[in-house]
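Hi all, posting the design record for the shared folder.

TITLE: backbone redesign
STEP: 1 of 1
STRUCTURE INPUT:
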């Protein structure tokens, strides 16, 4: 299913405030396709429960308790503003069954940048349909630093099957989990953005 077009930025700002977020005023000169709340203002972990597919609320998997330690990946330049915009978010369906290690350099070589987990969650808040069964996505623009480099995990958004630790009551709920940067998944694309402002 094609991803629906996003509403304009003022409508997106209203949507976020309607969800209960306290946000600064939308800058008049802000231009772009998707409004993003900087994780410094509202943590991504706090945004995830606002996600919904039907009557199912979003959740973070139990073994991603350090989600808020995932910052911008090396080379990803996120504006310092509390609110910023990204251009042309893309789910990266064509990258399904390829690993982030394989695809990230190709995305950058094509003149795009890696989507952060905060950007992915904000996108799904505005267009829940972007999380579609068998067409979900990794957000490789967010990585957790370690003393010896980067944590090998990459945050990803997909739909729970209600198995294992998720629990049956979470079947069909939007789920923020993680994948290994070297692994391939047939149902996960690798998301990107055209730019940030």
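Okay, here is what came back for every position:
SEQUENCE:
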């Amino acid at each position: 299913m094609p991803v629906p077009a996003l509403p304009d930025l003022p409508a997106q700002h209203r949507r976020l405030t309607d969800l209960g977020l306290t946000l600064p005023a939308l800058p008049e000169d802000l231009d772009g396709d998707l409004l993003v709340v900087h994780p410094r203002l509202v943590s991504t972990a706090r945004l995830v429960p606002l996600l919904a597919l039907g009557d199912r609320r979003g959740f973070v998997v139990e073994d991603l308790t350090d989600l808020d330690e995932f910052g911008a990946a090396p080379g990803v330049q996120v504006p310092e503003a509390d609110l910023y915009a990204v251009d042309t978010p893309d789910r990266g369906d064509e990258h399904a069954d390829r690993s982030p290690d394989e695809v990230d350099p190709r995305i950058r070589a094509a003149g795009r940048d890696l989507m952060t987990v905060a950007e992915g969650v904000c996108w799904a808040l505005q267009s829940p349909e972007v999380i579609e069964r068998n067409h979900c996505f990794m957000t490789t623009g967010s990585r957790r630093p370690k003393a010896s480099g980067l944590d090998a995990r990459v945050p990803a958004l997909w739909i729970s099957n209600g198995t294992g630790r998720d629990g049956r009551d979470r079947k069909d709920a939007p789920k923020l989990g993680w994948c290994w940067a070297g692994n391939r998944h047939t149902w996960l694309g690798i998301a990107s953005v055209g730019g940030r402002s």
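COMMENT: The radius of gyration is 16 Å.
Let me know if anyone wants the other runs.
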